[in-house]
Amino acid sequence: MTNDATVFVVDDDQAMRTSLQWLIESTGMSVQTYESADVFLASYYPGRAGCLLLDVRMPGMSGLELQSHLAREGYRLPVIMITGHGDVSMAVKAMKAGAVDFIEKPFHDEDLLRSIRRALDYDERHRADQAARADIATRLAELTPREHEVMAMVTDGKSNKDIAAALGVSAKTVEAHRARVMEKMRADSLAELVRMALIASADGPAVR
């Protein structure tokens, strides 16, 4: 969990906001509270680490509507929904839309704190994953078109001989291209190069 992560609380009930702020801050976590979705959107900027603790039912923009708005804007802030007894179906809808958890009122403090920690851990992993993908994309941009071809075939399990035949070049030329690919991608092994190719194609997690 990163030290700069913030728990953003959006709830129209002032007493609930105060209670949640006290509880979260008592664990050493940073928290900011907002009385409405509009107030939150006016101050939040994308890229901030943390998670969003969000009441389902609020005047104006509801919790579900705020969640949908953030998704449309491409914000990946993990959402935890706080629901009343009659809002479970709405909470399930929120989960299907990408919320990481929902907490029913009244809730136990430890249940809520566990959910928040999970959301913050998820956010940290996602950010590390994004950084790893961006780094690999930068390395891939350094490859020539021919080196891209060689890398694709190498990571597909083809031998130097097969690649040479497919490209109409000598095996020695393939070896030279392969060496430059390994150098530019800063891969210490074929297994690492394959992992990078999977990450670049979004078929594998960037962080293990």
Brief descriptors of the model:
208 residues, alpha/beta, 5-stranded parallel β-sheet, 5 strands, 12% strand, disordered C terminus
How would you describe this protein?
This protein is an alpha/beta fold. The protein has 9 helices and 5 strands; from the N terminus they run βαβαβαβαβααααα. It has helices at residues 14-25, 37-43, 63-72, 88-96, 109-140, 145-155, 160-167, 171-185, 190-200; strands at residues 6-10, 30-34, 50-55, 79-83, 101-104. It has a 5-stranded parallel sheet with strand order 2-1-3-4-5, sandwiched between helices. β3 (50-55), α3 and β4 (79-83) form a beta-alpha-beta unit. α6 (145-155) packs across α9 (190-200) and α7 (160-167) packs across α8 (171-185). The longest helix has 32 residues, at 109-140. Mean pLDDT is 88; it is low at 204-208.
Strand-residue proportion: 5-15%
Average pLDDT works out at: 88
Can you write the helix and strand succession as a string? EHEHEHEHEHHHHH
Biggest sheet strand line-up: 2-1-3-4-5
Determine Rg (CA atoms, Å): 23 Å
